[in-house]
Amino acid sequence: MIAQIARVVFNVPKVIAIVYDPQREASFHEAGIETLAIAVAGAELLAARLEGRAEAPGSAVESWRTAGQPGVRVPQRPLEAQDGAFYVIVVGGGLVGFYLSRNLLNNGHEVTMIERNRDTYELVSRQIDCPVVLGDGSTVAVLERAGASRANVLCAVTDHDQDNLIACQVAKFHFGIPRTIARVKNPKNEMVMRRLGVDTTVSSTAMITNVIESALPATRVRALASLGSCGMGILEYHLTPASPAVGKKARQVKLPQNCSLVGVLRGGEALTCFDGVVLDAGDTVLALVPSDQERAVREIFVG
After folding, report:
1. Which of these three, 180, 206, 232, is where a domain ends?
2. How many structural domains are present in the chain?
3. How far apart are CA 65 and CA 40, in angstroms?
4. Cβ within 8 Å of residue 64, ≥6 positions away
5. Would residue 211 count as lying in a domain?
6. Lowest mean pLDDT: which of 91-95, 231-235, 295-299?
7. Which domain does 242 fall in, by range?
């Protein structure tokens, strides 16, 4: 996950990752990440690669430098169900995974659960009427045992965002599973995970925050909608007499790049034509804001 964030978000030109599961190497190479198989070479080889030291032909470094050509991703299958029932793999046997699996079973879907902790595995396998596989759900071998080659959906709901990301990526790019869903504990990871191939992310933290903010009338900033696919949201800002934007013409308020003023709510009326509109205390301003600009726009409207 760190290597992919470095490549995709920060455009780091050279990224090297240690890989413990050799079957994952092809997907790393597809993502433009060089790999070092820790079972074959040690940290001194990583240092040699970074320093550009010459190695003799046939050495471990030379083998690593030439091995692992980019693999071919398995074509993604269409999202189809047999008689309306999907085959769903749930990675993570904690409370979320347990109740999710039980609900899916009650709705007539076929489910296999994967859990890596042996104590949890022993407990869950006695309490749920579906196959439970013991192992790491982010590895090719374990997903293969769970029947990933015929699954319609994979839901990764462990407590670790990085494990959920890798499980979804292996499911999609190695097995061609058409729909992947990841639980996200840190809402800041949602946009990154979508950019890295996860179809749907679910953040309980973000959902609870939105519910709380919507329930508090005095809240000066509320998230009305999240446009997850592009990392943007529609937010409303309640202006008070102390708001920096009060007294300014709506057209003259300078917003950061990619931000847009959507409307002004005043006295039960929605103003969408801003010519001549001067912002006043009591107004509610609606704006389209990328997630990384939320703090800057908040300072402009509410301080």
Report:
1. 206
2. 3
3. 12
4. 35, 36, 37, 40, 41, 45, 49
5. no
6. 231-235
7. 218-301
